Amino acid sequence: MKSRSLALSASFSSIIVLVTLIIFGFATLVSAETRRGEDDRIGGQYIVVLKEDVENLDQVEAEIVGRARGERIASYRTVLSGFAVRMSEEELSVVENDPRVAFVSEDRLVSTTASARENAFFSWRRGTPPPPPPQVLPTGVDRINAENKANTGTGMHVAVIDTGIDLTHPDLQANIVGGKNCTSSKPADYGDQNGHGTHVAGTIAALNNTQGVVGVAPAAKLWSVRVLDRNGYGSWSSVICGLDFVASKGPANGGSITVANMSLGGSGVSDNNCGNSNNDALHKAVCRVRDAGVILVVAAGNEGKNTSGFVPAAYDDAVITVSALVDTDGTSGGGGSGTSYGADDTFASFSNYGSAVDIGAPGVNINSTWLSGGYKSISGTSMASPHVAGVAVLYLSTHPGSSWTDVRGALLSSGEALGSGHSDPSGKHSEPVLRADTL
Ligand SMILES: [Ca+2]
Ligand SMILES: [Ca+2]
Ligand SMILES: [Ca+2]
User: Do residues 175 and 288 share a domain?
Assistant: First the structure.
């Protein structure tokens, strides 16, 4: 199985999007008129951020959209005062020059950071799955030693910002407490039609029962925040919609969600100033989720490149960024068999790297929940990130109210140092590897 990069060349990406549109149609924020341009920009689609002191937001928004003869896609009221809109490029300067507008971001495409996207749709259509297999301990959960911990994340709530979650999966259903769909006009339709979000959810909190797999924090409750469509694609505007929902459920707003996982990404850069210096609405929204008391854990991406060109991985001022480790035997020391992505207990060849990366976690051949009550082994930094999100849940369970830097510091200091169970022949990964037993 070849690693599926999200840094496909612009032209190749355009072909994929076009073919996808023709075959399946998009019922999402990535509209049929979407043109995928350079740097994943979505032509004619913008995110308008209003100034902080603007009042009567509904009225102002309607007025600006009307004047621009645009079509409103989404409204944001928690992470931003603003909205997403489709409008002609000619109207852009008018909107930008409106005294009530802080800045306008171009909307961009994002996609899952897993390698199995090409198989997802077809496995979903395959129909009735075989009877559930007896429960096994996934190698990733074993590798970080989360099994046998008395702390299972009871009472904790975590958001999976992804393709949704299979709401009737027998290994997840009892843990799912709510969600929101940001990919269409049906907010209650937050099930999964891809499999990716279901897989991520299982690594965090699959039930400890007699079947399937078990998650890092099997007693934690899950929120399904669907921002990517059935093909694994979304946009900054759909992700900000999801972030808006998560922030509204964060501790600062009286809510229960303390951790959110984002195994997704696209091109972009960080100003290390919450997007205020480079007019980045996604970055601003991510910082607001941080400020709402929600720890954001994100995938580094699968391009085999520096994360500096990929967001949200590059947002070093607001998220915990996770690279992928190869592990085939569920234990440290490099004694397991090798893979096409590298030797046991080395970093996966597809994993992004760089100074914004905080910690590594298992991300190759990870067995977890899939659509239609099924299970599947797939690879990607998408699979590494939820291991860290799960351990963040465990930490917050015993250290409530910790800031995101406290959580990051705890994960790093309890992590496995380079040379103490894993090695890095590539010389690109100085970050420690996640461990739950030393937390
Ligand atoms: Ca173990
Ligand atoms: Ca189970
Ligand atoms: Ca190993």
Answer: yes
